[in-house]
Design a protein that fits this description.
By secondary structure, this protein is of the alpha/beta class. It has helices at 16-25, 39-49, 58-62, 79-88, 103-115, 130-140, 174-190, 281-293, 301-320; strands spanning 5-10, 29-35, 53-55, 69-72, 92-95, 120-122, 147-157, 196-203, 209-218, 222-229, 231-242, 245-249, 260-265, 268-273, 324-325. The strands form two sheets. It has a nine-stranded mixed β-sheet. The chain has a six-stranded parallel β-sheet with strand order 3-2-1-4-5-6, with helices on both faces. It binds NADP nicotinamide-adenine-dinucleotide phosphate (NAP). NADP nicotinamide-adenine-dinucleotide phosphate (NAP) binds at residues 11-15, 18, 36-37, 41, 73-76, 96-97, 123, 125, 164, 170, 177.
Length: 326
């Protein structure tokens, strides 16, 4: 059997805990190291999570010869910088969403991955889940006729005023943080890229979009509408509308182990049970497939780039008050 991949966590972010369980459940992956901006915090984190090696700087983690894969869970504004450094250090990288804050950043990251012959993927975990694949399969099979509209929401109520998500300098804002999910879901279901977008935002005290409302026009008169935000209770939802029916996905971005989606057509509603799958295992196993078996990645960098391009255009539209062509 091939040697398992050794993973290093780049930062002590809250989201790391989502990855630790699947890493430990997977036979092909091992969590070996964590890197933090301070040795004290790295040591405390390593003790808490029983991680063998604690590095007191990101540079030191990247220089660790025992680490094969970096999970980049830093704030959005340094995803590109540290992903590129990790790739140049010969590591494969699973980078948290949004992979970058501009198309130029994504292009530089993709170039570094190609030059160093390493795998780089955006950690859009929901894209690996059987529920997402089922929704797309239903649409592609014509189950709801001609696709017309994908509507989605992702909002939650921010518990504190001190959060990376509220800081414009760290790549904060609701569209980058959670709006990226319904935008990505719509693009995946529709299977093409938006031609024109229009966005409006409510700007919060810190200067980021506290709420964002967007519309995207796709080829063939297909539309997507979404909202994202930090100032309303937790809401996630996807509705897919076609000429012959609708599909409703109540928990599209963070599905649990027991999910059902609804297919409404010919005046009947069918409840479709989704095979149970731990949410974060798919992205971990996909990295192992790509690195160990040379498989193509499930979600391409071109796909990630197009999501970032759509978000940048929506923000530009909200700023200028005009639709933006892509
Ligand atoms: N896929 C998902 O389900 C999901 C869910 C939540 C978040 N995320 C993504 O994961 C990333 C981290 O989110 P999070 O909520 O887990 O963040 P968080 O708890 O605030 O942690 C961010 C970490 O980044 C490091 N860091 C480096 N520079 C920093 C700076 N200037 N200010 C603050 N922290 C800094 C810190 O680690 P050290 O002090 O150890 O260096 C900090 O612990 C974001 O990109 C977010 O979009 C993804």
């Amino acid at each position: 059997m091939t040697k398992p991949l050794n993973w290093g966590l780049l930062s002590t972010a809250n989201i790391n805990r989502a990855l630790i369980t699947p890493l430990r459940a997977s036979a092909r992956n091992v969590l070996t190291a964590v890197g933090s901006r301070s040795q004290v915090s790295a040591d405390a984190y390593a003790r808490e999570w029983n991680i063998p090696t604690a590095h007191g700087s990101y540079e030191s983690l990247l220089a660790d010869p025992d680490v094969d894969v970096i999970y980049n869970s830093t704030p959005n504004h340094i995803h590109a910088e540290w992903t590129i450094k990790a790739l140049q250090a010969g590591k494969h990288v699973l980078c948290e969403k949004p992979i970058g804050l501009s198309v130029a950043e994504v292009d530089a990251m993709a170039a570094a991955a190609a030059e160093n012959k390493r795998v780089l993927t955006e950690a859009f975990m929901y894209r690996h889940h059987p529920q997402t694949l089922k929704a797309r399969e239903l649409v592609a099979s014509g189950a709801i006729g001609k696709l017309q509209l994908v509507r989605g929401s992702f909002t939650f109520s921010m518990p504190s005023e001190v959060n990376i998500r509220l800081d414009p300098a760290l790549g904060g804002g609701s569209i980058w943080d959670v709006g990226c999910y319904p935008i990505s879901f719509a693009r995946f279901i529709i299977g093409t890229e938006p031609l024109e977008v229009f966005g409006q935002q409510v700007t919060g005290r810190s200067g980021v979009d506290d709420s964002f409302f967007g519309q995207m026009k796709f080829p063939g008169e297909v539309y997507a509408q979404f909202d994202s935000g930090f100032r309303t209770p937790f809401r996630t939802h996807i509705e897919i509308v076609g000429s012959e029916g609708t599909i409703t996905v109540p928990s599209p971005f963070k599905p649990g182990l027991d999910e059902k989606i609804s297919l409404y057509r010919e005046d009947k509603t069918e409840s479709i049970t989704i095979p149970s799958q731990e949410l974060y295992i798919g992205e971990v196993e996909d990295m192992a497939d790509c690195i160990l078996s040379g498989k193509s990645q499930h979600m391409s960098l071109a796909d990630s780039r197009a999501n970032v391009a759509a978000i940048v255009a929506l923000l530009e539209s909200a700023k200028t008050g005009r639709p933006v062509n892509l």
